[in-house]
């Protein structure tokens, strides 16, 4: 029997769903795929994918994340890197909870990517989320429209996967994890708001 998708469409969102489940809910966890994207000056090379398995989310929960860069094809020139795309696979009780878990994980990851590359990354925007649990007949599906990217190519930096992996594991070995995380977040904010001849 073919699976059916219960689709909820909306406009572009700038934050994850607020709150959690209400009322009587099943405690059975399902498998979800959640895709966020963000305008970014930190890029993976065309056709390159970076897979992070068992990325820690908190409270012993881990997620699998696949990172790549969305390129825009042009007839008269090389493809232009536009958005950082993150596909998150996780377990959750509801699709809303899954989007929250994914957003939290991607936000933490984008902070470290910005630090590693010294390149600005915008706030992640939810694109698609769906129930990927095997063996079910009906599944929730969310899709949000996103603004198109256009204009001339901007100056950015390619992501070094080995360096990023090293940076991601460094805080685990530090006794100053809170201070390191706070400093990385402040630097990410500075990159996002920096312009020529201004002070942040």
The number of E-state strands comes to: 9
Number of helices: 3
What is the CA-CA span between the terminal residues?
57 Å
Total domain modules: 1
Strand content: 35-45%
Q: What is the radius of gyration?
A: 18 Å
Major sheet details: 7 strands, mixed
Helix-strand pattern = EEEEEEHEEEHH
Q: Spans with pLDDT under 50 lasting ≥5 residues?
A: 9-26
**From the helix content, strand content and strand pairing, which structural class follows?**
alpha+beta
- Residue share in helix: 10-25%
- Overall average pLDDT: 81
Q: How are strands sequenced across the largest beta sheet? A: 1-8-7-2-6-5-4
Principal-axes geometry comes out as globular
Sum this structure up briefly.
By secondary structure, the chain is α+β, with helices and mostly antiparallel strands. It contains 3 helices and 9 strands, in the order ββββββαβββαα.
Question: What are its keywords?
Answer:
7-stranded mixed sheet, two-stranded parallel ribbon, 3 helices, 9 strands
Question: What's the SSE blueprint?
Answer:
Blueprint: E1 4-10, E2 30-39, E3 42-43, E4 50-58, E5 61-74, E6 77-92, H1 95-117, E7 125-131, E8 138-144, E9 157-158, H2 161-169, H3 177-193
Parallel strand pairs: 1-8, 3-9
Antiparallel strand pairs: 2-6, 2-7, 4-5, 5-6, 7-8
Helix pairs in contact: 1-2, 1-3
Write up what this structure looks like:
This protein is an alpha+beta fold. The chain has one domain (4-20, 27-193). Helices cover 24% and strands 37% of the residues. The strands form 2 sheets. Strands 1-8-7-2-6-5-4 form a 7-stranded mixed β-sheet, with helices on one face. A two-stranded parallel ribbon has the order 3-9. A hairpin with a 2-residue loop joins strand 4 (50-58) and strand 5. Helix 1 packs across helix 2 and helix 1 crosses helix 3 (177-193). The protein is globular. The termini are far apart.
